[in-house]
Write a structure and sequence with these properties.
Radius of gyration: 16 Å
Order of helices and strands: HHEEEEEEEE
Strand content: over 45%
Strand order of the largest sheet: 1-2-3-4-5-6-7-8
Length: 180
């Protein structure tokens, strides 16, 4: 089974690199995305609070995921300025492993909505910090069909929570939302 993990990491790294390059390419003034606001690249920064039930522990187990986020955005479409989201999902998660499907429902300042399904993601606990990176696709609403990445560094107040009976029940902190 050890061979699967490096493959997943390579695939994850390749997807992240591709998305980053796509964001940089479509955010350039005069790029084709600027001619079509519905195809605009969106780059948002903000914060997320995510809860896990039961809490993340040293071994992966089935967990439910819930939370919320808020973002300030820059876009080649000037109408999109901010968004608020609710987050839900579940799967097998632990402090060193994540295999979950998460849904983020975003309401933009324009009143439009976006539903993102994240199938690929990692949540790694490192020295009390949750390093989170998820990759997904917009399945409904504004930006349908677009790829989304959401990296972030959320803090865990007690870095030893992974080894505690209740585990890490909540992470919170800065996050980024990139839609390309």
């Amino acid at each position: 089974m050890g061979w699967k993990k490096p493959s997943r990491i390579r695939r994850f790294t390749a997807v992240t690199a591709s998305v980053t390059l796509a964001v940089l390419g479509t955010a350039v003034p005069g790029a084709s995305a600027s001619a079509h606001p519905s195809r605009a690249a969106v780059s948002c920064t903000g914060s997320n609070t995510i809860s896990f039930s039961p809490g993340l522990s040293l071994t992966a187990q089935h967990t439910r995921i819930g939370g919320s986020g808020s973002y300030s955005c820059l876009s080649t479409d000037p109408a999109v300025k901010w968004g608020r989201s609710s987050i839900s999902g579940g799967g097998r998660n632990g402090c060193f492993f994540s295999d979950a499907t998460t849904v983020e429902r975003i309401t933009w300042n324009t009143g439009e909505k976006t539903k993102v399904v994240y199938h690929l993601g990692t949540v790694q606990q490192v020295a009390g910090q949750a390093v989170v990176l998820v990759v997904g696709r917009v399945v409904e609403g504004r930006f349908k069909g677009r790829t989304v990445t959401s990296p972030g560094l959320q803090t865990v107040l007690n870095p030893l929570e992974c080894a505690s009976k209740g585990g890490v029940e909540r992470i919170t902190g800065p996050s980024t939302l990139l839609i390309v």
